Amino acid sequence: MVASDNFAEFLREQLAPLGRVTMRRMFGKTGVFCDGVMLGMVTENTLYVRVDDHNRAAFQEAASHPPLNYEKQGSSIDLAFWRVPERLFDEPDELVTWARAALAAAHRVAAKRGRATSGRASNPR
Fold this sequence. Notes:
Residues 13-106 form the TfoX N-terminal domain. By secondary structure, this protein is α+β, with helices and mostly antiparallel strands. The chain has a single domain (5-112), classed as 2-Layer Sandwich (Yope Regulator, Chain: A). The protein is built from two helices and seven strands; from the N terminus they run H-E-E-E-E-E-E-E-H. The strands form two sheets. It has a five-stranded antiparallel beta sheet with strand order 1-2-3-4-7. Strands 5-6 form a two-stranded antiparallel sheet. A hairpin with a 2-residue loop joins strand 3 and strand 4. It is globular, with a radius of gyration of 14 Å. It starts with a helix and ends in a 13-residue tail after the last helix.
């Protein structure tokens, strides 16, 4: 399920210190982009952010929840997006800190894949 309009607007406001935050529907979910780089996904108004080997230790609190996943040929495939703890929505500065770490991971993933990490904006919703 995609992010509600209210939740999407809340995220854009909260994550504004990172840069231009946009949302785009994809795979039945909502992708969260900053300056064209996908740092997170929302499903059922729950924010999941990009995690990789460099920032995994900082996200151990998020590891208590299963990562975002999808079903493929009868198997569950975990994605590198971990659920943000609910308490962060009451701590805007810490939410931005987590999002900044997720954005750094998203840039590393994009660099590995040979994609530009700036200059390409997504749907400006």
